[in-house]
Amino acid sequence: MVAHQARATLRVGHVFLKVDGDQTNTDVEVEAMTLAPVPTPEILWREPPVLALAALPGVALGRLGQPSTASAAAWTAAGAMLRVLHDAPLPSWSGASLDAKASSLDSECAWLLANDVLPADLVIRNREIAEAALRPWTPVFMHGDLQVSHVFVDGDEVTGVLDWSEAGRGSAMYDLSSLTLGHPERLDDVVDGYGAEAVDLDVVRAWWSLRSLTAIRWLVEHGFDPAAPGCEIDVLRAQL
Prior knowledge:
There is one protein chain. By secondary structure, the protein is α+β, with helices and mostly antiparallel strands. It has helices at 23-35, 72-86, 98-114, 120-130, 172-180, 187-194, 201-221, 232-239, and strands spanning 2-3, 7-12, 15-20, 43-47, 50-54, 59-60, 140-142, 151-154, 157-161, 168-170. Strands 1-2-3-5-4 form a five-stranded antiparallel sheet. Strands 6-8-9 form a three-stranded antiparallel sheet, covered by helices on one side. Helix 4 crosses helix 7 (201-221) and helix 7 (201-221) packs antiparallel against helix 8 (232-239). The radius of gyration is 17 Å and the shape is globular.
């Protein structure tokens, strides 16, 4: 299903086998799925370096770079699910700190400019937009990698959420941004489910810029294409 230098995921019938050489990632994933008050895959067994998970019913809410065929109600349900997670008791471990995010943003923007990966004005303007994401936040139980393809739905209902290895205490707006990255037309639906009073739209959009700027080098080095239609580089262009 997925394979890169960090880990691989294989499907065998109705079982997903996640192979990760760093077992601290799997430790976090298992603990987060145990604590999260939202639907997650059933853990079938664990024999390091392999974690076996049952397949979720339904289909992914969407894919980055492709239009989502899911209903507005399904996106709203995803927002409501995320609010339940964020209102849950905090896990005992932390996610990436503000200082770490700021340092990553600085180093990745410097790399993009030094290697002429993107036009300088595109990097600089998105770097300015991303500043809003670095405002202090009140920590929540954060999924940490809530890509739209990690949320499964059946009709208008969320059936489960995948890939918890980056969960921890972190920013609520980061999760909202990850879920809607490349799908800005769905943001209103997600906010309807999450609760508009708890959403700072400027910060969500700032995370779109920050996440895209800091992901490009990793994606290139791991065999993915951030320049594919609708993906990270198009997200940066749309921010302007």
